[in-house]
Amino acid sequence: MVKKLVLAVLVLAGLAATPTPVLAGCTTTLADCYVRAAKEDGFWYRWAAGLDCELDYVECVRVKLIGT
Known about the structure:
The protein is mainly α. It has three helices and no strands.
């Protein structure tokens, strides 16, 4: 009985964690940006490119939720 309850809670938490359609485009763009960042040669260039991806993601979410 407890196992079924825990499974049900995990399933519901997983469904609640899915991105809203508004954020789906931003998340896809973030994933693509991470792929490009991972192809950078040096550690610091890769790290900076990943940070740039995260800043672009924050900007995208802000624009989608708040507007300009």
